[in-house]
Amino acid sequence: MYKILATILTIFILSSCVIPKKTETNWKAFKIEGFAQGTSYQITYYSKNQVVSSKYVNQLFNELDSSLSIYKPYSLINKFNNSEKGLLMDKHLLKVVKRSMKIWKESEGVFDISILPLVDVWGFGPTKHSKQPNDSEITHALSCSGSDKLLIKGRMLVKTKPCLKIDVNGIAQGYSVDYIAEYLDNKGVKNYLVEIGGEIRVRGRKQPGNERMRIGIEQPSSIDSIELQKTLQLRSGAITSSGNYRRFIQSGSKKISHLMDIKTGYPLDNEIISVTVRAKNTMSADGYDNALIGMGIKKAFEFLKKHKKIDAYFIYKDENGLLRDTATQKFFR
Question: Rounded to whole angstroms, how far apart are CA atoms 13 and 217?
């Protein structure tokens, strides 16, 4: 249910160089860090008292994995994938599938959670391999894919073809960030930053200095060292990224991306190297970054003109193979 850390454009949380003014308040910075969903996470919140424990955060991750992780044999999503017709969804799977179907329709099928048969046949699923599939294997995987074969009936998720399987990796980590942020909201925390594998949600400011949260976006070329392409400040909301420059299969001189084109059955191959999305919540940002990277620059900007509530920053190669970047007008505001 997660993006492996090496698969995404990493987003870094930057420490502010501003020295906070002296204050009489009792603000404290609390940090919880660990490893979950195949990557690292950190939760930083500012409060006068400790209200969140690492033990309970781990319980939240276990709850999410039990529903959404294709890497847990006992998970609800794997029970669906192994079923003939479908099953009753819990609240997590229901929310993630509903949002996924919405983005699938809006993106005209570019974002599609029924991608697991293709992911598996190319060796990027739970069972890793480097063997490239032949045409008949790809054709079979395509016949078992397609969200038009999925139906939501109340809390029931129904498949019209038994071999159809879903993979919510492209959106579930964003949902996980939102779920933990919602827990902090319910505990009365008004200033926090939640990050899982580079997917980030922010509320409020750093205390006691009242500074905005600062985020750094990594350069695609900085695989062995950290070099920042851009930095920005967040007042609130979410920021996520998707990229194809870290996770791939090497075939001769060609790198085969882990991102699949469900219309062809082959790995995605366009000019976009990475896309970073800002949105109100992390689940939406996470789903839309995958949709946008699959569209190509021209169609992505056409899409963004119709969806004003999201903003995006792109790193891509131009027709001469030179590295370029571009963004919507409000992305850095």
Answer: 9
